[in-house]
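Per-residue structure
===
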Amino acid sequence: TASFPSQTTLPVDNAAAALRPVAGVQGVLAAGAPFWSSCGERWRTGQIEGVASASQHRVGHHLVTMASVSPSIPSCNLKSAFLGERSGIRSTAAPASRIGFLAKPVECKESRIGKKPIEVPSNVTITLEGQGLKVKGPLGELSRTYPREVKLVKEDSGQLKVMKTLDTRRANQMHGLFRTLTDNMVLGVSKGFEKRLQLVGVGYRAILEGRDLVLNLGFSHPVRMTIPDGLQVKVEDNTRIAVSGYDKCAIGEFAASVRKWRPPEPYKGKGIKYADEIVRRKEGKAGKKK
């Protein structure tokens, strides 16, 4: 069960918050004890500041003890909480206040990608401004703002590390994601990226007209696309397109916008595909036998 044994005294940091004996449960809840709280669809952590009263409830086969706490709880303003380990218990009723679980925070696993340091070449300049990062290199300059779950640290060796500021599931996800985005920024301004596409189909052609990419894809009219700033596009043999630049996100978005005009179909393979893309082919339906 999720209830405390009889005559149990919880660790006390501030004895101002006390539980009344309810159904064999007696003890003192420490002000500042950690808890897990359900705020919408996110889990957050915080600290209890006081307990007013307690009572026991049975939810299914679980016996839990509910304590009414002070409304001043960071981020969530919870009014009640369960005493016990977090076990996925939900109240059968629908109280007006949200429910949190008094338990020690669950330690998330360290991201294997996020904990890797980022090598910064000598020709790249890094500027940290609070939660913002500016990267400048021979090919261009990029900037990004980071969420509160992560922070950037520049080590004495010149390497750049992305650190977690919270021990939550979302922070663990942000850790690996923003480490990869930061590494792409450093590689982009120093070496650059390239994405290649290929046009497959009779009459499918691509030509460049200034800063416009014009595609003939079997429509009643040619498709004209303006090339974004910071990107370079080359057309080879009217059927191969190379998109290059220092911003990997912009390259991927433009290449995807070109491909979506004629995604490769699985029967004859006609369409626009990435150069390294493998199109899974299907066998057409056989004709009706006489």
User: Anything to note?
Assistant: The chain has three domains: 18-102, 125-190, 193-274. Residues 18-102 form one domain. The mean pLDDT is 73.
